[in-house]
Amino acid sequence: ARRCRHRRVSSNSNPNPSHAAAGQSPAAGPRRHAPRRPPRARHLRAPRAGSPASHPRRHPLRVVAPPQRPAPSPAATLAALETLHLHRRSLRLSSAHLELLLPLLPLHPRLVSPLLATCPRLLLNYSLPFAPLPLAPRLLLLGTLATAKGSKNSTSNGTSGSPSTGNLGSDHGSDDPVVSVSRILENMEQGSESSDGIDHLALAGIGHALACADELHFGRILVSLVRICGRIGDVGVGVRVLKLVDWLVSGFVGSRMMRKVQVLFEVISPEKCESEGYVLFPAVMAACGGLRALRVASVRHRLDFAPKLKEAPERTICFAARRATVDERYDDDQRHVLLQCVALGLTQCGPVAPNDSVLRCVLMALLEELLPLPRLLRISVKSPDGNSAELAKNQVKQHQDSVLFKEAGPVTGVLCNQYSFSDEKTKDYVETRVCEYAQELYHHLRAAVLLHQAKRNGLLAEIDKIAEAAFFMIVSFAAEVAKHRLDANSSGGFQPEVAVRILVEFSFVEHLRRLRLPEYTEAIRRAVVVNQDNAAASALFVESMPSCAELTTKPGYLMPLS
Hints:
The protein is mainly alpha-helical and 562 residues long. 65% of the residues lie in helices and 0% in strands. The chain folds into three domains: 106-156 and 163-213, no CATH class; 234-362; 381-562, no CATH class. 35% of the residues are buried.
């Protein structure tokens, strides 16, 4: 302030203060005015030393270009985008900020998910290079573009121009994203493009495209998807198809788009599967996913669906179960995957109509695929001097980590539910198979214990986990049998042969019991009550016990059973 007052006083006394301060006369040179000071802004901080604004020879508002920095590495860019994705809620980024960031980010496959989660609709404003991308990120981006395009068209009611979807691929031109997905799947179906990249990202993109597709492209994409997944032949792909169809049907029901649900069930109908020659496990998983969505929607939205709508996917399940159990034209690999998918799918979709083929299929899947302990034990004793024990140990660990072993309990529940509604002939067949399984388990487990107990190679400890699950399966099924066939009020009355069969089963697995189970105790009580007043049944039970000579001279089956 003192300087300003001095300057005002000097200006009144000398018309050219700059020249007077420099000791020059007005005629010494051209008249120069001092630079005007910029207006002071109290809300701005003072510039730091060394900054462009603090330099005496530079204009205080002049923008100096930053020095050229090397481009960030893909790893640094990936870390930055993942940080942006994880903290997007607290950062509160606006669309303007994201529009500045998006063109600077390379479209690496790992960047696809964070990019879509951060700002999916901004992708419509850019022509992204789709062709160099792998299959899964490409399908995911196309599906997201289809969803964003559909939502933009629905909000604008068709008044705005169509969004730019250029550069969708090397041969797609400027097609609609749904059409592009359909063409990619057709190329994969014809073999011109590999189907190795079908994973959860690819199926997510296909699902978004199916949700936005019209009826024509919906059917085409679905048919191609069933054929491609059938060619892969993996139960993991089948589980993903179930979740995908569950999500689709739930959305269709919530949006009251029941026509698409009908088209989906028509594509996977038994007639369509027969005429098109589908590999059946994707179709049966799609049917189970559709049934699950209808069951959940009926409870959540309190809807009553037409009986024919539920009968359509159940017909597909029965058709696939009959093929897996009866048709000998099915090769072993396809049969194994189909058995697994039918069993896993039925645990997700809820109860279905009783069917003998479904019951037999679930039984075979449970004994051969989910609890294949006799087969693993045969491998462990095949060549005692070789590496069979290590091979069996690796297979046992691999099976314990699989989804099949983890779903053994729910599949047992499906077996008991189907058994309770079956006829007497089918019940006898199922009971006999379970009893044979218990006997085979006993002999092979006894042989493995005698062979590997002294070696301490860890195989028996791993086998014991699957054996315990097999014990629970046998006990749960025996309790269901006792409830239906050892009851005085049942249609057949007391059946001594059934009681003997239950006691024989328990005698084979008694050594696996670790705790007291109510089902175990109740089944034994019912069987003893039936046999104690029946001399023939008691004699039959005693005859079923192995003799002392058999136990001492035949320690077990060391070779695979035929």
